Amino acid sequence: MLNSRCKFITFGRNGIHKMLKRCMTLSRYRTSKAINDQYVAKSIESKNKCSLGESTGNKKNNNQFSQRIVFSGIQPTGPLHLGNYFGAIKKWETLQYLNIPCIYSIVDLHSITLPQNPQRLRTNIQVVTACLLASGIDPDKSILFLQSQVPQHTELAWILGCSLTMARLGQLPQFKEKSSSLKEIPLGLYIYPVLQSADILLYKATEVPVGEDQFPHIQLAQHLARSFNNKFGYLFPHPKPSIRRRDSSQPFKKV
User: Fold this and answer.
1) Burial of 66 by CB count in 10 Å (0-12 exposed, 13-18 middle, 19+ buried)?
2) Residues with Cβ < 8 Å from 248, sequence gap 6 or more?
3) What is the distance between the terminal CA atoms of the chain, rounded to a whole angstrom?
4) At what angle do helices 12-30 and 118-134 cross, to 10 degrees?
5) Radius of gyration for the chain, computed over Cα atoms and rounded to the nearest angstrom
6) Which of 40, 98, 142, 204 has the maximum number of C-beta atoms within 10 A of its C-beta?
């Protein structure tokens, strides 16, 4: 089955570009239409209620976001392998057939936390997109989009980052692990977990399929959601990780 899907790659460069163009066209429309209409409208409504001084009980808050919404992302670091497929993509494909809103992103902004060759990055974005489509991700059943095409990701990351302390970020294990081998530490490597939290909270995701090593970052998203809700009224749900056993596929892992 996997081999038959990967035959998409044999369509050639023109075939891949046509499919990518179709996918990105659908992504732009569905991201701006479905997401903005559904989620931004609710956000404005929640802010209006907050400005009027309305209080919402925990029970009502939980019911407000009772619908499951799945979000996950993958970095465009090159062609996907079997570890990626069985560790993440296969579950993505299954979820999109369960009548659960699924939002999948190629998180290119996360890739540039370390130096990148621009041309190679553009090529990797196309290759990863083609591999996702070949592996069964259907833009008609789920939302597949390029992170950098939605500026609200970085806007929300800035807002969330302004309420976070450096001490809290410094506690994350991946920063300690990656920075230990670098003489000069890029700022992006330090603050990218805030962008990851914004990726999740922007779409009010309730479920995030991640590897075990990413659990501290989901805890950070939970912390930011709770802190924001306490200050400005209930807006973000409590995202929960859908834990996979540690494998060679961690969509948000820094490489």
Assistant:
1) exposed
2) 81, 83, 84, 87
3) 29
4) 80
5) 18
6) 204
Return d(Cα 151, Cα 153) in angstroms, integer. Answer: 5
Question: How far is the C-alpha of 108 from the C-alpha of 77, rounded, in Å?
Answer: 9
Distance from C-alpha of 48 to C-alpha of 122, rounded to nearest angstrom? 41
- Residue whose pair of structure tokens reads 């989901």 in the numeric block: 218
Alpha carbons 206 and 203: distance in angstroms, whole number? 9
Q: Residues 81-133: pLDDT tens digits?
A: 888 888 889 999 999 999 899 999 999 999 998 889 999 999 999 999 999 99
Which class for 165: exposed (0-12), middle (13-18), buried (19 or more C-beta within 10 A)? exposed
d(Cα 159, Cα 17) in Å, to the nearest integer?
36
pTM over 0.90: no
Distance CA 166, CA 191 (A): 9
